[in-house]
Structures are given as C-alpha cells and as structure tokens.
Write a structure and sequence with these properties.
0% strand, globular, 4 helices, mainly alpha
C-alpha cells in the first residue's frame, strides 16, 4: 500500500467514526459499553471532533509530494496506531 492509499484509508475510517461520535453518540457509547450520561455524550462528541480533524488532515495530506513531510505524517500515524494497539490490548472487561 502506498502512502496516498494509506492516507485515504485512514481519512475514511477516522471521518466515519467521527460522524458516529458526533451525530449518534448515545448509540456509539452503547457499542463501547459506556453509560450514556451527559458527561459521556460530551466526551464522545469531543472525541468525534478530534477524529474529524485527524481524518481531514489525512485527506488533505494525501497528495503531499514532499518526502520529508510524508514520512513525518506516516511516522506519527504509525506511533499513534501502535500506542492504540497497546491500550486496546491492555483493556480488560469489567468483572461481573
């Protein structure tokens, strides 16, 4: 997969999730097993705004020709995705 395709896939996934967090935060919160109180809904919407920004950055960067800029964006995305994987693997379901 080349950098342009990676940026487009990252953008699409981030923007789709962002729309879910922004438009239907209660439904999304239930998917994650979170009680959808006012504070949780606000937090989900803020997260949606952040994801929207990330998605737009990737979309707008898809045609960047500067190798140094492209490598910096790919490096940041790689580190972020690896940290996300560690966090995901470290999450334990609540004891019943």
């Amino acid at each position: 997969m080349n950098a342009r395709m990676f940026f487009m896939v990252q953008a699409a996934v981030a923007i789709l999730y962002a729309l879910g967090f922004l438009i239907v935060p209660r439904a999304v919160s239930h998917l994650y097993g979170v009680t959808s109180g006012p504070a949780a809904i606000l937090a989900f919407r803020y997260f949606g705004v952040t994801l929207l920004g990330i998605g737009l950055i990737f979309w707008l960067a898809k045609d960047v020709k500067d190798d140094e800029a492209r490598k910096a964006i790919l490096g940041g995305a790689g580190i972020s995705n690896q940290i996300g994987l560690v966090v995901t693997l470290g999450v334990r379901p609540p004891a019943s």
